[in-house]
Amino acid sequence: MKHLLDNPAWNALHSGNSQFAVGTGNVKYFQPDVSPFAALNENTVENLQALYDMAPPRAFFGVISPVEITIPESWRLIERMDCLQMVCETPARQVDKKQEFVPLTEEHVPAMLALTKLTNPGPFAQRTIEYGHYRGIFEGGELVAMAGQRLNPKPYAEVSAVCTHPNHVGKGYAARLIMYQVERIKAAGEIPFLHVLSKNERAINLYHSLGFETRTGIFFYVIKKG
Fold first, then answer.
1. pTM
2. Residues of the chain with pLDDT under 50
């Protein structure tokens, strides 16, 4: 039996993120200004071609797969990212109660876009905040670190957009924000998970120290139409 997290985008659009779904049948994708992920029932050549046929001109998507796949020649393959998928069943730390975690709202979107552009934690668009639960840390009125939630293939919830301004790295902000998200997700009766580049040893070591364990390797394909 396939694990829900083998196809997290598809299962998210059929549970916790169903409000963002575009498409029908075996091929869906997120509303583009929320997220670039495609969600296919199975990552077959036929479904990838069906995605191409329904997608608007110059659209690009992220396709997630637990195994290597062949991208049809109709698509332009921009990048393949080899990642680890990690799950936190038992947190190894508690939330820092002294740290102020500011709820981020639409008024903070410009600052969030600037921070993600600077740090590149993964795709972040104008409406990505609608995934919910974003929290930030401010210094001198500037957003210097943040984290939130992305894919929600219930009962799993993805910790995402973890980023810290380069001038504030080393202060433990990422760990504190992650543990806030982990505690919030666990309190909601769900299970935290995340994705990380397999070559990012520093981040992997941090996640291990917080209680995340590697579930599997997983591949992200960035593809563009036209």
1. 0.95
2. none
Give tens-digit pLDDT for 9-39.
Answer: 999 999 999 999 999 889 999 999 999 999 9
DSSP the chain: ---GGGSHHHHHTTTTTGGGEEEETTEEEE-TTT--BEEESS--HHHHHHHHHHSPTT-EEEEEESS--PPPTTEEEEEEEEEEEEE-SS-SS---TTS--EEP-GGGHHHHHHHHHHH--S---TTGGGG---EEEEETTEEEEEEEE----TTEEEEEEEEE-GGGTTSSHHHHHHHHHHHHHHHTT-EEEEEEETT-HHHHHHHHHHT-EEEEEEEEEEEEE-
Domains (ranges, CATH) in the chain?
4-82 (no CATH), 86-216 (3.40.630.30)
